[in-house]
Design a protein that fits this description.
Blueprint (H helix, E strand, L loop, with lengths): L5 E7 L3 H9 L1 H4 L5 E2 L7 E6 L3 E11 L3 E11 L12 E9 L2 E9 L8 H22 L15
Length: 154
């Protein structure tokens, strides 16, 4: 794996178990359009955002309170030329105790600056992790993509 992969992290007051549970609630922070299991070893799920991004993920590692790793089995972006981007890369979530805080370290191994989608994808991951997943952990409500046709009342 390239050392320049995309990574971001944050600290929260919640326990490692609460962070782990929130990560596995993918519909609560990434997208309500997720189809399939998202919490057990070898689960496979599909993600879709309109006709812009479609991917299939498999859970490779699930260590309660410590780590979750997904493998990107298949991926499609409608805005890039190289259709192999993301395929066979890994998305990892590591959970560490840091004093009385819990640290979440997110990395998309293989998503590097050489990728055509790097700028857009790293910006999107930052929003999903630093805002939506963070809010799911700290307030109980994330900001996932809504199901098509759903109107959100604020």
């Amino acid at each position: 794996m390239n050392d320049q992969h995309f990574a971001t992290s944050f600290l929260v007051d919640q326990s490692p178990k609460e962070v782990f549970d929130a990560i596995n609630n993918v519909r609560g922070w990434w997208s309500e359009e997720i189809e399939g299991g998202t919490s057990e070893l070898n689960d496979v799920f599909d993600y879709q955002y309109k006709d812009v991004h479609i991917c299939k993920m498999k859970l490779l590692e699930v260590a309660p309170g410590k780590k979750v790793v997904w493998l990107v089995l298949d991926n499609y972006f409608n805005f890039i030329k190289d259709k192999s981007e993301w395929k066979n890369t890994k998305v990892g979530f590591e959970i560490e105790q840091e004093g009385d805080k819990t640290k979440l370290i997110f990395a998309h191994f293989g998503l590097t600056p050489a990728y055509e989608c790097f700028d857009i994808c790293s910006t999107a991951w930052t929003q999903y992790i630093q805002q939506s997943l963070f809010k799911l952990i700290t307030t109980g409500k994330g900001q996932p993509n809504l199901k098509e046709g759903v109107i959100q009342v604020v």
